[in-house]
Amino acid sequence: MGTKVASGLLFPRLEAKNIHGVEVSVPRSAGWTHVQFRRFAGCPICNLHLQSFVARHSEVVDAGIREVVIFHSSDDELLPYQGRFPFDVIGDPGKMLYRKYGVESSISALLAPRAFGASLRGNLKKDKPKLGGLPKGGIFGLPADFLVAPDGVVQAVHYGTHAYDQWTVDQLLELTRSLKAAA
C-alpha cells in the first residue's frame, strides 16, 4: 500500500484518462480539485452519495471546485452507471491509483451501521445500478477525499473508515469556503 496523502504536502501528480477518453490532470492551476475515491461501478452506496454531487454540481462549480471521482472498475463497467455524470470519472481496475494514494480496503467497509443503512437506501432507489454478480475489484473498498488547491498543495484529506464515510456536498463547500477565507 502506498503512503497516505497528508494535508500541507504537494498532491502526488495524477495523470489519467476519464471514462470518455479525456485527459485528466491533478493538480491544475485553474481552481480547486476534490478527488474522491469510491468503490466499484454499480455500488449502491457510491451511487447514493454521488447523486447528491450530480444534483448540486452547479453549487460545487460555482465554489470553484472541480470533481474527479475514481472507481476500482473498468471504463466499460463504469459507463452505464457514471457515463452521464457532469464531472470526471476515472476507472482504475488494477487499483494502481488506490495504492499510490494510500486508499485501502477493509471488511469494516460494510459492517458500520451507517454503511448498512446507506446500502439499504441505495438498493431501494428506483434508478439504482443493477449489479451482475460480485464486482471484480471486491466489495470492501474504503472511500477517500482529497481537496487540492490550485498550487497543488493538499488542503484537506479524509480517509473513510467504512463505505459511507466521506464528505457530503455541504461539508466540501464549507471546508473550501473556510480554507479560502483563511488564505
Question: Which features characterize this protein?
Answer:
five-stranded mixed sheet, 20% strand, alpha/beta, 183 residues
Characterise the protein shown here:
- 33% of the residues lie in helices and 20% in strands.
- Strand 4 (65-71), helix 3 and strand 5 form a beta-alpha-beta unit.
- It is α/β, with parallel strands linked by helices.
- The strands form two sheets. Strands 5-4-3-6-7 form a five-stranded mixed beta sheet.
Mean pLDDT: 84
Low-confidence stretches: none
Q: Helical content, roughly? A: 25-40%
**Separation of termini?**
33 Å
Describe how the helices and strands are arranged.
Blueprint: E1 14-17, E2 23-26, E3 32-37, H1 44-55, H2 57-62, E4 65-71, H3 75-82, E5 88-91, H4 96-100, H5 108-111, H6 113-124, E6 144-148, E7 154-159, H7 169-182
Parallel strand pairs: 3-4, 4-5
Antiparallel strand pairs: 1-2, 3-6, 6-7
Summary?
This protein has helices at 44-55, 57-62, 75-82, 96-100, 108-111, 113-124, 169-182; strands at residues 14-17, 23-26, 32-37, 65-71, 88-91, 144-148, 154-159. The protein is of the alpha/beta class and 183 residues long.
